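Re: Re: token formats

Sure, here are both.
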Amino acid sequence: ARFDLPFFPSCVPTRMISLLSRAASDDGDETDPGCKKRFCCGMWTAKELIGFVLGILFAVCLPFFELSPEFPQASIMLAIAFFISTFWVCEVLPLAVTSLFPIVFIPIAGIASAKSVATSYWSWIHMLFVGAFLVDIAIEHVDLPKRLALLILSKVGVRQPGLVLASFLFTAWILSMFCSNTATSLMLVPFASGLLDTAMGEARNLQAIDGSEDSSSDGESDDARDHVSRRVRHLEHFSIGIFLAIAFGATSGGVATLIGTPPNGILAGQEILKNTLTFDKWSAFALPVSSMLLCLAFFILYFGYVRGTRVELNAHSIRRQYEELTPFLRSRDEVLVALIQLLQIVGWVTRPYWWQILQCIGLIADDHKNPKLVNDATVACACACLLFILPSKQRPGESLLTWRQAEHHLPWGVLLVMGGGFAMADGFTKSGLTGVIGKALGKVVPGLHPLLLTFVIIFSVTFLTEVTSNSATANIILPLLSAVSWDTLIHPMALLPAATVACSFAFMLPAATPPNAVIFATGRVPIKHFVRAGILMNLASSIAGTFLVGAMASLVFDAAGPFPEWACRDGESLWIPGPGVVNGREVDGQACSVLEETLDNTVSLCTMMNGTQFRCMNSTCVLAT
């Protein structure tokens, strides 16, 4: 679940080969007959044409609606935001191409310079994902994922259907934490297909043999034929559950890590967080949520497709494939790539403690400033560089990963989508749209119970993500929630993580996520089964996620506490020292939301959570009269 496809065509190709393109630039020649591109010389579907028309209408009409006399550019930025969001949601153009619009329209509108907007397209978040992507590509070029899948299946066996389901689900979940969800699905589908096709072939052969016998045979023969027919039906039903397990497991696993899926990276790059979100903190919060999704998927698929099913699978095929692999310790390339991946993970988890250890053993001074200069991107890229330094044994004269392989497989479109979202968020801030939206939504949000607010966010984002890319959803929703946080002084981690994980709660439609699309393209899972199992997953994850996300956010991020000082930003909120009580907790200082500000930003009127107003001038604040 490390990345979405840079764009996903609204017409799902019927041949799986069209999904093998990592750039997702090949729409294929065979598409669903009900989803043909009939408009604009065969370029657009009806949905894309509607998106184009709506986008143009928003761009033309919205600038004439004045949102705030204080921020005249807010209405222009709103028009740009609606235009781009409509193109994203309806996929009028590839998502990566639409993501270039902010650097075109924001400077033309006079909101920010092109130089300023361009800096949003490449940040430490992008470098974090580049480093992670490079290790991911190296993993895909060795037998490590295949070895893991075959090892798990050979250990748990293939005689108990529930264990087989759990094996595929767990394998997809683990792999997608550090590999792309698309690649994870594509790697596991052949194993599942081979295993199930062998069993189905044997069952159909028995059915054909029984059907060729004399139909007037005794009742015992009739019972045998019924048994064979039931076996075929059970296998067909069980196969659907296995393929759904691969899709659901791959989607669920990406939630667990900061590099697991683009919405997580988009969250880390939000200005309100000030680069405070680290790999270890996110994993501490999200791993329980991801585990919850794994358990929900198992129970829903087990009771829907496995319970009461009797299947006989061929264990010999699994053992044979595993034995054909080179022994792990003799496969030097595989061992080195595995060690680099492990080093990367350990580096992310332990990075906050490096400097404390070095100080304890006297290697650096106590006042050393380097902890502030190194982040998770440093770890990711350092490990990625090793792939180009260490030689390959399988390909003499080459490194473990060549630049030709990396250049071909790096998902550049994903990086552009993330950059476009950051550029939009920057435009929101500089145009004043953030403050306008924050004040509008801030009148509603404080009246909601925290659990109800979390549920509304998760439920809304979950079903929005069914019809649009999760990256686009995160780019649209997270800046709005940041604005609400600044205006209402609700802790940002009480709002943003809920929306972020909900971007990965889409299980219902084939086009909702790349894993769903890969499985649907096999032709083995009818859409009614996606909808039936997916809507249960959506509802269960929204309800269970409300309680778990709220609890983990409070535990890991102190989301139930007062608005933090590090989240304050000039023009949006100020930090006022002084004792007080916020959310039942005694504090030495608290945030104050800016209500109005002079043009030279020297005098501000702000209000605290309890309604007390202060007038601040040159860092000195007094009670407003």
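Second one below.
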Amino acid sequence: HYHQKVIMKNVIRIGLLLSLILITVLKCTCRDIVQLQGTNFELALTSYKYIAILFYDDSSDGRKLEAQWKAACESMEPSDLPAESEMAMINGKDPELKEIIDAYGITLPSVRVFRKGIMAEYRGPTDSEGIAAFIIDDAQPSVKPIWTVKEMKKILGENSNTVVFALMNPEDVSTASDEAIEGYSIDPWGQFQAAADSLRGHAWFYVVYSEDVRNSFKLKASDLPVIYMVSNEGDGFVKYTGEILEMNLSEWVLRNSAPAMGELTVSSSKGELYATQFFSSRKLKFILFLSPSMLSSGVLDSWKAIAVSFKGQAIFSYMTQSAVADVVEYFDVDVNRDIPLIVGHLPSTDLKYKSGKIDIRDKEAMTDFVRGVISGTVPNVLKSEPVPVVPPVPVGGSKASTTVKAAVLKLVGSTVLETVSSPDKDVLLLVFAPWCEHCKKIVPTYDILVRAVQGESRIVIAKINALANDIPASWGVKAFPTLLWFPAKDKPYKGVPTPRNYWDAGFSLLELVGFVQREGSFDPKTLKVATTEQLGTLMGDEEALR
């Protein structure tokens, strides 16, 4: 298979050379810039490890960017870019390119970078000098080698960003992954490269071959590969313990590193990367909400100084009004009434904090709020309906007690965590929204489910209105209705309760009853649930209600 792949790659490269007959090459003073066409665009992506492409048009901005792009090319030496790296341009209005433009979501004019066939946003400047400097640096490998202890000490001593390094034996570094034009090998070296490329600009990645460095960590050659991170928070060496896969490794880096104070926005690729890093971190975080008119160097300087004074304890950012709609919704901020204010969030417990309207000219007041959250003197905020009053169960006669109808337990923000954490109970929770039509359709069946299990005190059937009450973001509820399962066998929880998802075929009474029996924590033979005959009667009620 390997030889077949090599042959195919050579065929592709030969095909590209033949296709260059159709390519107009604009001769520059020092480098050639390739003018692509829609017919050979995809072929070019499979022929370069790195290619930066300008998608231009006839607009004023398009002509300006095209001129700067050409000038950047002219200023570069042929040796400035690594082998199999290139700069190119293509007319975004080429009819042959329309499907590609739509598929990649490319706006005109703009630049896209393709590294091993995978597209990334261009985050560099737009003047010729800046473009040339950025492309020369961006085309270099994302993983750099470290050969000596002295070199490693220098890198760690001079670098204020997060550093990730893999200690590997030379034989662990696969040449197959290095030579590949498309994709990454599945071995640790290939996956480490993939993570480095995906987090380029966020952290610095190195591969260490030095035996002296390995010995300083008291590692044997047989222990490798081993990955460590040194974050910009000064937490020392943090060892990676998971399987070396790009997605797992990237998430680990994001969660255990902290960005410098910056602006939360999704209006630019750089902003999206920062927001991803900020919200992926498991550290306590604070966000200063401002309106555009409140932005000033004085306010941001004060906020940055506060961030520096609490470095290592929390991370900080700021946001203008509703720049990130999900954040506004999550913290229930009225951007017309509440701003300016500071919000805080502790991911490990999913606790939220709000300062209320605050005087941003009063640095001491802002500092006091942050300090209070960290010390525990500022209470967290919780959106919650009033706790419903449960009518007492009649006593004193069998007739009275048998006429009481079981009802779904209504939970609110202030009671949901305690209830689902009950150590000796299996809890099935329906998360709904009042406007949801699908929710309304399953409510009758859900109500009858309570009657089917009303004789079993170890099973709790509950519901919560997610629009009127806070539930942990870690539960990942993105649609309604959502059923979450909290079996007693998973308890006690460490930190925020972790539910299992309801995964059965549907929401019929038989399916729901079968699920709580089959997936429950208790011997089904001991459960006091409706008999087959009783379920038949209840199913009749279900059909009548529908």
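The chain is about 35% helix and 20% strand. The mean pLDDT is 83.
- S.
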